[in-house]
Amino acid sequence: MPKYAIVCKIQKSLKRCKINVFRVFTSMVRVLFICWGNICRSPMAEFIFKNMVKERGIADKFVIESAAHSSEEIGNPVYPPAKRELAAHGINCAGKTARQMRRDEYDDWDYIIGMEKLNLGYMLRILGTDPQQKVHLLMDFTDHPEDIDDPWYTGDFSGVYRQITEGCEAFLRHLNIQ
After folding, report:
1. What gap in Å lies between CA 42 and CA 119, rounded to an integer?
2. Tell me: the pLDDT tens digits for 141-158?
3. CA dihedral sign of residues 58, 63, 67, 69
């Protein structure tokens, strides 16, 4: 069983005790990407970033997931055009299903990263507050902050792939992990 899976199992059993096992047993950077439904942009960001850190040989320093702020798509797989765009770049997202972020997982993450300004209000409504300034927008790590387009409406999955890749590259530079 991978180290992270063991830590997750322990964390779930200790949630009632308010002990954050991630902080006690790991020094991994924990990143949660958020979008509306967790079927297009946030899973694309999750798997693009996972691929990026794997290619650099630093995947063992990260825990990377994605979630939605909406409950509309819970349990649904990655939207087929998003899945095809990832596959076109050699990235597999098989098995990913949409889930909704929860208030009680705030302490589990170092970064909670939304795709557009609209996400921020919903994220903060769920989280309540952000006392540790963990909530960010992905493109705010670039030199030209902007919303990541929603391909559900635009149909431009390759353009969104480029935006997310640029944002993830900038985020990784921000972290400065070797």
Report:
1. 11
2. 999 999 999 999 999 999
3. negative
| Signed CA dihedral, 98, 104, 109, 112: sign only | positive
Burial class (CB in 10 A: 0-12, 13-18, 19+), 163: buried
Q: Which residues of the chain have pLDDT under 70?
A: 1-26
At 73, the amino acid letter reads E
Instruction: Give every strand in the sheet of 111-114, ordered side by side.
Output: 62-68, 29-35, 111-114, 135-137
pLDDT in the model for residue 94: 97
Write the single-letter amino acid at 92. Answer: N
- How far apart are the C-alpha atoms of 25 and 28, rounded to whole Å? 9
Q: Which domains does the chain have, with CATH numbers?
A: 28-175 (3.40.50.2300)
First to last CA, the chain: 26
Q: Which residue numbers are catalytic? A: 35, 41, 150
Dump pLDDT digits (tens) for 40-68: 999 999 999 999 999 999 999 999 999 99
**What's the pTM value of the predicted model, to 2 decimals?**
0.86
